[in-house]
Design a protein that fits this description.
By secondary structure, the chain is mainly α. Helix content is 58%, strand content 0%. It has one domain: Cytochrome c-like domain (Cytochrome Bc1 Complex, Chain D, domain 2). Helix 2 crosses helix 5 and helix 4 packs across helix 5.
């Protein structure tokens, strides 16, 4: 019975996964150098028109692009200590 209770509790925590880092802090440390307009291919923070087609691909695809690198974006987007949840949070933050 204890095993079942622990398993249910663990599964509940998986669904509540959150970014461990503040999106703005990650952006300032790792993303801003390209997403502030210095790299024309990188969608600028707050540019909803540039972000729309990217967001349409879904967050899993965007996180995969950040994690593996995509076009001019280096692998992990220069945030070596970011989790998938951190990437999702900063993408959401940048696209607004």
């Amino acid at each position: 019975m204890k095993t079942v209770t622990l398993l249910v509790a663990a599964l509940g925590l998986v669904g509540m996964a959150q970014a461990a880092q503040e999106p703005e802090a990650v952006f300032n440390r790792a993303c801003g150098m390209c997403h502030n307009g210095q790299l024309p291919q990188a969608p600028k923070k707050g540019d909803s028109a540039a972000w729309a087609p990217r967001l349409a691909q879904g967050s899993d695809t965007l996180v995969k692009h950040v994690s593996e690198g995509f076009n001019a974006m280096p692998p992990r987007g220069l945030c070596m200590d970011c989790s998938a949840e951190d990437y999702k949070a900063v993408i959401e933050w940048m696209s607004k």
